[in-house]
């Protein structure tokens, strides 16, 4: 296979030039980092699981009319996506206090918030992705008011839909992070959901036991990280019941 041009390597994914103009191949790695790179490791099989989970969720969101960058999954670790201009913001939606909001306002983890809260963080590793206001975003030109309105609207719809989807499989959607991109059509642009949606960027708790089924298991050294991701995939119906992960090995699974 001809080697493709690598465009970017992030903490959990590599982006390659796609086969047609305006497309990109997203390769899901097994690498995991936390605390802005302070902690790193490899979770064998994570990339394969996240590729499948994100494909499933993006397709379900497209069915309800959320525009996304997802085109199709290519193989175990890769998916074809539309090339978009990434907006340098992390859009976080929270239903239950956990992680940074619990710390910032001294709220006990697990406390249900009065309503869903949308937050914006400026994507900048050197600054540690600081929380920003809508005024910062507009004043510094990271997005215009119309983009912001579209992102907030999409984020709330994604939250409503995913809360229901996960509730149906015994999982509470505590919070999650989205990234959006701008897709140009001549002089016009519109906002599409980009990146991935997976246990790497969602907090997912078992409804009955509150067991964590997400990347906090890695961040907090709780162990059984891959097993938790597998459990999410199994409940979503995208992993055979008896799946033991033997099909989720390393790069040899790419073909
Ligand atoms: P927190 O602000 O509490 O650390 O994170 C809120 C939610 O957004 C969590 O579900 C977390 O997984 C996700 N999130 C926030 N920032 C990042 C990030 O830089 N990378 C990833 N993978 N997830 C993030």
TrEMBL record:
- Record InterPro entries: SAICAR_synt/ADE2_N, SAICAR_synt_PurC, SAICAR_synth, SAICAR_synthetase, SAICAR_synthetase_CS
Biological process annotations from GO: 'de novo' IMP biosynthetic process; cobalamin biosynthetic process
Which Pfam family, an example, fits this chain?
A: SAICAR_synt
Keywords per UniProt: ATP-binding, Ligase, Nucleotide-binding, Purine biosynthesis
Q: Which GO terms describe its cellular component?
A: cytosol
- Catalytic function, reaction form: 5-amino-1-(5-phospho-D-ribosyl)imidazole-4-carboxylate + L-aspartate + ATP = (2S)-2-[5-amino-1-(5-phospho-beta-D-ribosyl)imidazole-4-carboxamido]succinate + ADP + phosphate + 2 H(+)
Q: What are the GO MF terms of this UniProt record?
A: ATP binding; phosphoribosylaminoimidazolesuccinocarboxamide synthase activity
Domain SAICAR synthetase/ADE2 N-terminal, first and last residues per copy: 6-235
Enzyme Commission number, as recorded: 6.3.2.6
In terms of CDD domains, this protein maps to: SAICAR_synt_PurC
PANTHER family registered for this protein in UniProt: MULTIFUNCTIONAL PROTEIN ADE2, SI:DKEY-6E2.2
Family assignment from sequence similarity: Belongs to the SAICAR synthetase family.
- What's the protein called, per UniProt? Phosphoribosylaminoimidazole-succinocarboxamide synthase
